[in-house]
Amino acid sequence: MSIYFLYKNTWFSQNDIIDKKKEKKMKLFKGLLSLAVAASLSLAADYVIKFSHVVSPNTPKGKAADFFAKRVQELSHGKIKVEVYPNAQLCGDKVVLRKMKFNAVQMAAPSFSKFTGLVPQLALFDLPFLFNDAEHLHKVLDGEVGKTLLNMVNKKGYVALAYWDNGFKQLSDSKRALIKPEDAKGLKFRVMSSKVLIEQFKALGAIPVVMPFSEVYSALQQGVVDGQENTISNIYTKKFYEVQKYMTLSNHGYLGYMVVMSKKFWNRLPADMKKVIKQAIKEATAKERIWAKELNDSQFEKIKEYADKTGKLQIIKLTKEQREAWVKKLRTIYPKFYGTIGKDLIQKAIKAGE
Ligand code: SIN
Questions:
Q1: CB under 6 Å to ligand 1: residues?
Q2: How sure is the predictor about 44, in pLDDT bands with cuts at 50, 70 and 90?
Q3: 112-118, long-range: CB < 8 A, 24+ apart
Q4: Is the alpha carbon torsion for 244, 246, 247, 248 positive or negative?
Q5: 229 alpha carbon – ligand 1 mean position (Å)
Q6: Is 153 within 8 Å of 260 (Cβ atoms)?
């Protein structure tokens, strides 16, 4: 016999209660089981790689890191476990490079700008309007210049494994539409820690503010800075577009990553496991380039949809002449970096696009 009772306008039977209790217990059991499985996988693995990054999982780098983790697990038959920590959950990029030195974190893929304190030549990629397009950029990354820069990072106590793409950066702000370079005058822009990026905004008469990625959204929301520069995938996944009024499709600079491993950790790996890492990186890198293009394109459509629907964001597409004015203004900073980046390296990169 079932007992029925009324609760908040709904009749329940005794069985409902029992089922609910069972359901709760099952949920708890499943939760504990997945924790136990995760813990046992870590325990069963001979090596654990903590892979730290600062972006969302649904970005080119986020997807590639997750794919890499899966492939390493498969290829090593569980001997290596890769734990991916997105969204700066573990630490920011500045800290991560220090932590990797003593193997507290084993892998990361910071943007080139974040390496410039270590290898100033990597600021090459921050130079505004250096690359004609993605094809030109890839020629530089995959060619002699790219190899030289990987070696420079290797010499600093890391194992440089690959270049991962994101894309070209766009400008956004909350004060006025950025159509002419002069429109940026007096505005505060968040930048990554790179002397080139600081100089770039100074050339516009703007005020650059160096800030970690994880703080950008609230800085934009609270008006600590007026604007920022980033790729579409970062602007979309971190919702910067929701706290900005204008976005100029400037494609003025490139944002890419170098995937690095702690040298201390690498040196401990046996030859067969090093092979696994190299294979998984090769596969992840090939996929990452495709995802970078796809995600930046599809996420742009989503931002556009938001702009059209809400009217809260104005997207500015520069004419050829308008863009030319930005190119002319911003390329004036190149000679300032002939010393630190090297005139030779800059010229080689330019030549690759001719
Ligand atoms: C990233 O894409 O890893 C973050 C870049 C930034 O700090 O703006």
A1: 54-55, 111, 166, 192, 213, 230, 234, 255
A2: confident
A3: 112/194, 112/255, 112/256, 112/257, 112/258, 113/192, 113/193, 113/194, 113/196, 113/197, 113/255, 114/192, 114/193, 114/194, 115/153, 115/258, 116/193, 116/194, 116/195, 116/196, 117/193, 118/153, 118/156
A4: negative
A5: 10
A6: yes
Question: Whole-angstrom Cα distance, residue 156 to residue 258?
Answer: 13
Whole-structure pTM value: 0.88
SS3 27: helix
Give the amino acid at 342: G
Q: Which two tokens stand for residue 297?
A: 């394109």
Q: How far is the CA of 3 from the centre of ligand 1 (A)?
A: 59
Q: Which helix (H) or strand (E) holds 99?
A: helix 93-101
Q: Which of 53, 54, 215, 231 to mutate to test the pocket of ligand 1 (most atoms within 8 A of CB)?
A: 54
Do 174 and 227 meet the contact criterion of CB atoms below 8 Å apart?
Answer: yes
pLDDT band at residue 12 using 50, 70 and 90 as cut-offs: very low
Assigned token pair, 31: 């939760």
pLDDT at residue 346 above 70? yes
Instruction: Look at residues 282, 318, 251 and name the one whose alpha carbon lies nearest to residue 71.
Output: 282
Q: 3-class DSSP state for residue 100?
A: helix
* DSSP for residue 183: G
Q: Which helix (H) or strand (E) holds 84?
A: strand 80-85
